[in-house]
Amino acid sequence: MSKLSYVLVFVVGLVLVIANRSSAQWPLECTSSNVSWIKLRADEAYRFYALDSLSLRIMTPGCSQTIQYTYLMNAEERSANYIQVQPDLTGDGISEIVLGCRIGSGPSRWTIKILNIVNGAALFQRSAPGYDYFVWGVFDFDGDGILECVIAVTDAASQTLEVYNTGAPASATAFPPDNQPVAFELEQNFPNPFNSSTRISYSIPVSGQVTVDVFNSIGQRVRTLVNERQETGLHFADWGSIGSGATPASGPYFYELKLDGKPLGARKMILLK
Ligand SMILES: [Ca+2]
Ligand SMILES: [Ca+2]
Hints:
By secondary structure, the chain is mainly β. It folds into 2 domains: 36-169; 185-271, Immunoglobulin-like (Sandwich). Helix content is 7%, strand content 47%. It contains 1 helix and 18 strands. β14 (208-215) and β15 form a beta hairpin. Mean pLDDT is 82; it is low at 177-182. Residues 88-90, 92, 94, 96, 116 line the site of one calcium ion. One calcium ion binds next to β10.
């Protein structure tokens, strides 16, 4: 190749590099701190929401940071740390919100409240010492055109499903639309990162010997959260301040679910103190 050819190749290459560098970065649409997002109606955009120890605040749709709905926690609910969106059960087109709270420490106790977020009224709530309540889904369980609400109730020894008739038509829509349980699911722990305690939800397709182990970043097992025979369905494993043993250090951890010795899945979580 002649000297001129080398120069030409260099110049063409330089032009290509510059063109590539100047090609558009995606434009930033919006930012919002300490929030997550949900959808409350079929025909609207997603919205930001913020959940802290005092309130749940839901913004108007899109990138807006204008608060449209606010729910103020009562004293017990100040530990609320998850929400779920369920179908519109009141006929106003706005999906109902499930607020989940861990109450106190010691024996497990998770409560739920299904809220009409428009006026803060509770449509349904369940809470009792020693029991965990979880809204598994709102769907037409028995095929009669009316939505049922399926609640899982667990204590140290058992799980019961309670099916309530909401009276709302099955045409109501939820976001995400599919709240029905699947055969096997290992959820991301919540909250994550966490600093005191966190919860891992999982469903198993058949009953069997279940273990949920926690490993540190170099693969050493640091805690066994579950090691028992469990029935088909939804279960929870909690880790943190309520566990026994020395408090673990901040950092990444992995949890692994096994059924009858067979690994079903693993996920990563972050402990931040
Ligand atoms: Ca509603
Ligand atoms: Ca029904």
